Amino acid sequence: MSRYRGRHLKPRPKKRGPVVVATAATMSLTGPAYAGTHLVRRGETLSGIATRYRTSVTRLVRMNDLANPNLIVAGRRLRVPGGRPTSRTHVVRSGETLSAIAAQYGTTIARLAKVNKLANPNLIVIGTKLRVPGRGHVRAATPANVTSIESSLENQARSHGADPALVKAVAWQESGWRQSARSSAGAIGVMQVMPGTARYINCCLGGHGLKVRKADDNVHLGVMYLRHMQRMFSKTKRALAGYYAGPGNVKGKLDKGQRGYATNVLALVKRFR
Q1: Residue 259 in contact with residue 269, Cβ under 8 Å?
Q2: Measured at the alpha carbon of residue 178, what is the angle toward residues 147 and 190, in degrees to the nearest 5?
Q3: pLDDT in tens, 137-182
Q4: What pTM value is reported for the model?
Q5: How far apart are CA 15 and CA 34, in angstroms?
C-alpha cells in the first residue's frame, strides 16, 4: 500500500483572517449589548458597566438584585437603565481582533472595515478609535456555546496531555472559539483545521474519522495536531509556528509572522491560567 502523503507537509497557505495584535487585556466571548440589557463579558467590572451606561453601581445592584457587586459572572445578562451605550465608538484594546469587536457589537468584519476605511482588516492598532455601525444581524457565540467549547478544549487538552491554557489560547487566536469561523485559505472552525490536515490526522495520527465541521471533533483534531507539532519541535514557539504556518515552513529562524503568532498565543495563555 502506498504511503499517505499528507498535505500538511506542504507550506500552509498564508492566513488572511484576524490577527491578535498584542496580549489580551480583555476578551469578549459573548454577544453584543441589546436595548435594556447588557451581557457581561470576561474582564468586565460592574463599575465599568455603570460608567458605560451613565449610571451608578448602586442602581445596577438594585435593578438586578445583586448580592455581591464585586462578583459578576461572564454570560449573565444585566438590566441597564436607558438600554444603550453612550458611545458608538470602540477604542481598540490590547489583544483584540476585528472579528471579536464585530461579534461584540453584532456586526461584521466587512462592515467595520468599510465604515472605518480600513485598508488592511488584519491589522488594527491598539488605541485606534473605530466607528461602530448600527447593530446588524450577526450574533456571537451564546454563553451555552462558549461553555461547551471551553469544556471541549479542556477535556481534549487533558486527554492528550496538553496544557489546557495553551490549547485555549491557540483556539482563541485562531477563531475566537467560533466553530463558524472560516479562513480564506480554507481553515475550518475553532482550531482552524485545514481539511487536508484533518485527513492526515485521521489517517496517520489516530484520528479515526474525526469530522472537521463538528465542533468537538474539530477541537480534538486541533489538539492532536498541536501535540504533533510539540513532538516535532522541542521549543513551544517553534511548535506554535509549525501549527500556524505548517512544519515545512519552520526554518532555523522564525519569520516575522511566525514570531508574532507565537508571541500572541503565549501572551493569551496568561489570560487562561
Answers
A1: no
A2: 95
A3: 333 444 447 778 999 999 999 999 999 999 999 998 888 888 988 8
A4: 0.56
A5: 32
The C-alpha atoms of residue 158 and residue 116 are separated, in whole angstroms, by 42
CB 171 within 8 A of CB 190: yes
> Of 141, 156, 170, 144, which is closest to residue 216 (Cα–Cα)?
156
Dmax of the chain from CA atoms?
72
Cα torsion 162, 267, 243, 228 to 10°: value is -20
Burial class (CB in 10 A: 0-12, 13-18, 19+), 55: middle
Give exposure, 143-159, as e/b (b: 16+ Cβ within 10 Å).
bebbebbbebbbebbee
The tally of CA atoms less than 13 A away on the side-chain side of residue 100 is 25
**pLDDT (tens digit, 9 = 90+) per residue, 191-239?**
999 999 999 999 999 999 999 999 999 999 999 999 999 999 999 999 9
Residue 174 bears catalytic tag:
yes
* Active-site residue identified among 44, 150, 154, 174: 174
Domains of the chain: 7-18+142-272 (1.10.530.10), 37-131 (3.10.350.10)
